[in-house]
Design a protein that fits this description.
The complex is a heterodimer of chains A (339) and B (171). Chain A is an all-alpha fold and 339 residues long. Chain A has a two-stranded antiparallel ribbon with strand order 1-2. Classes of the chains: A mainly alpha (339), B mainly alpha (171). Chains A and B meet through helix 4 and helix 5 of A and helix 2 and helix 3 of B.
Amino acid sequence: MIDTYLIPLIKVLFVLNATLVGVTYMVLLERKVIAWVQVRLGPMRVGPYGVLQPIADAIKLILKEDITPTRADKWVFTAAPIIVMVPALITFAVIPFGPSVNLFGREIPLYITDINVGLLYIVSVASIGVYGIILGGWASNSKFPLLASLRASAQLISYEVAVTMTLVSLIMTAGSLSMVRIVESQYEMNLWFIFVQPVAFVLFFIGGLAETNRAPFDMAEAEQELTGGFHTEYSGMRFALFFLAEYANMIVVSAVATTLFLGGWLAPFPNVGWLNFLEFIPTWMWFLLKTFVFLYVFLWVRATLPRYRYDQLMRLGWKVLIPVAIANLIVTGIVKVIL
Amino acid sequence: MGEAIAFYVIAALILGFAVLVVSTKNTVHAVLFLVLNFLAVAALYVLLTAQFLAVIQVLVYAGGIVVLYLFVVMLVNLKRPPEDHSAPQRHPWVGFALSGVVLAQLAAILLFGGFGAATDSSVAQNSDLALNNVERIGMLLYTDYLIPFEVASMLLLVAMVGAIILAKREL
């Protein structure tokens, strides 16, 4: 009873809440990091160094008037932010934060579930999120959101092909679709997959930037061209859901990249003897640290690189990333057969 | 018991969404009901411990193909009221008769096709299936069903070439 219902329920509640808090603080972190890059201070007013800013933002967004345009398609308009947010959150069900820990005399694995199609589950759930963006733009019944949502969805579908193709070559290396198994096989090989599949890593990261609609691929919300993007007509908490889903997706991509390429919860270089002292840091801490590195790179890229033009973006996706991903897949297959 | 309840609830959802797909006036809503229908079918696969099929169902149908449907439906201007369907070549009773024939066919397959009650060995296989879903399907696809699998991929390739030729008359 406790093992089948209570513990998973507690884990789900914990992970959901931790994610939501993480997401709100990602917003603050982004503002701070970009401010530091641009030699500014960033938010400083609410709390010391602005640490309470996310709470102030949340209160503001909840209290704002919630407007539905009169010509909008009400049901779809309401559903769109939810459709964007839910897939981003349920992905965390299969992400392993660590192997298992002993808590109160119980062996508790640090993941909600380990299904044998874990990686495919993440890919397929992420593909549902596209609907929220398309429908949000369409239901607003307004020109710019429609254009932005068409752009965004074309971009997401194109890059999804490249990313999925990349993941196939990684699955061939790992020999499993289960997220826990992928980390374990990196442990058995004594090698993180970033060193085995460097091309796949680069492709996945570029694809991840595009899939989360982040700079330099943030065509969907190119302010100069499209006012606000697909969520122009949204206000208050519904806008916040779109906004937070983007950050939740960033965390998902970072966590998946950590699991697949950086050895998940493993301490670095377990085969190098004098680095064994690193083991004193708990496994979940390693996972969070590596995820944080990725999140920081996301922000760093946004502060550094200018936006791509739309045709360049599509050309990069279809004419560079997908062919390279296919070539990588073929090479992986050949190497796998020879060895 | 719980499994039976889950099955009937999911089956009812599938049928309900299917009816809504064909009865809704707004085409975008119809496409959305189609997505929900596919998701319910995926839930049914999970109930049959075919997680791999369920995930692929969501990825390919709900996440891939229907997005493209949605594109087409959104870009075609559907703000006008639906046109009067009084074309002389349309005969609703032909459709009804055809669907009746298909229904009879499916019922006949179920009744006489030797799909008996699950035996003990198939239940034992099922628990194995839950553990090694992907491996089992891969084995089947590349041994027993190799030729149908390859023929299906050829069919998709031909369809793709055809679509490109139709869309771009001058290459």
